[in-house]
Design a protein that fits this description.
Bound molecules: 2-oxoglutaric acid
CATH topology: Jelly Rolls
Number of helices: 5
Largest sheet: 9 strands, antiparallel
Structural class: alpha+beta
Distance between the termini: 51 Å
Length: 293
């Protein structure tokens, strides 16, 4: 079988797996709040997201960006041929499939780095009381962080097509909460997130393979929906988006000359059952409540 053939069959296998969840709904909404304001609660229940401007200092965002660059530089041995995926020191690094426009350093070729939240600045972030307070109103008193990824979105990188994150999470309960921290400005030109407000109330839709030649492994696309009400989220460095794992979202391509970066975490209720085999990118770390004791 050609490499192309292998890619096609693994894409198909992956798509079949995530569509097992098609039709699921998430009927949990926030009723009582202790920490969220009325408008934040309404935004979650009605639109499926909460935007917190200026949540994290710019200097800390720059520290995150630099720390990930240092991780990537020590992960990839420049003398070896470039692989698609790297595993080092508990982290997983993934290369951008589409060739980058300009390569000066190894980070210019990277797409994502996963499994960052067990250490250092990444771990500090998930333990912030102000973050956990908001999550508690959504997920309850017992919270785990199970996924972290830094997204490089280098110049020329394609955006991710329309999807619902829960289709990637074959768990026994929902929702989970995504926390998308802008560690650079996110604009329409450099590939900001785009959401479909209110779509978290819909079932999980069918996700078809992203058929752009050379698109990243794992990218799938919802095609059975109109996206007339799509809303680009223009963010400044340090702004935080909390979003429902059923919310349909995508991101634009990066057509600018500069990297657009984001640090993205996902949180779940402690005790969530992930099924027989967990994704290698997941790592369940308790951050509040009974899992800590
Ligand atoms: O940041 C991006 O470009 C896409 C991120 C995304 O869609 C996700 O984290 O699910």
């Amino acid at each position: 079988m050609t490499t192309e053939g292998q890619d096609d069959s693994s894409k198909e296998e992956f798509t079949n797996r995530i569509n097992k969840q098609k039709g699921r709904i998430s009927s949990e909404f926030i009723e009582e709040t202790k920490y969220l304001s009325q408008s934040q609660k309404d935004s979650w229940n009605e639109n499926g997201f909460i935007l917190i401007p200026n949540f994290y200092p710019k200097s800390k965002c720059e520290e995150i960006n630099q720390t990930v660059i240092d991780i990537v530089r020590s992960m990839v041995d420049n003398s070896e041929e470039f692989n698609h995926a790297y595993i080092d020191d508990g982290h997983i690094g993934i290369r951008e499939m589409k060739p980058p426009i300009k390569i000066e350093n190894i980070e210019d070729e990277m797409s994502k780095v996963f499994r960052l939240h067990q250490k250092g600045i990444f771990n500090e972030f998930i333990k912030r009381e102000d973050l956990l307070d908001m999550l508690q109103d959504i997920l309850g008193e017992n919270i785990d962080c199970f996924l972290s990824q830094f997204i490089f979105k280098n110049p020329g990188a394609w955006g991710q097509p329309w999807h619902q994150d829960s289709s990637y999470f074959p768990f026994d309960r929902a929702p989970q909460v995504g926390a998308w921290l802008a560690t650079s400005p996110a604009t329409e030109e450099n590939g900001c997130l785009v959401i479909l407000p209110g779509s978290h109330k819909e079932p999980l839709h069918e996700h078809l393979p992203d058929d752009r030649p050379g698109s990243n492994y794992g990218y799938t696309e919802i095609k059975d929906h109109d996206f007339l009400k799509e809303t680009p989220l223009l963010l400044q460095t340090g702004d935080l988006l909390l979003f429902h794992s059923f919310l349909m979202h995508k991101s634009f391509d990066n057509k600018s000359k500069h990297r657009r970066t984001a640090m993205v975490y996902h949180f779940a209720e402690t005790g969530t059952n992930f099924g027989e085999i967990d994704s290698p990118t997941n790592e369940w770390i308790s951050v509040r409540g009974k899992g800590l004791s």
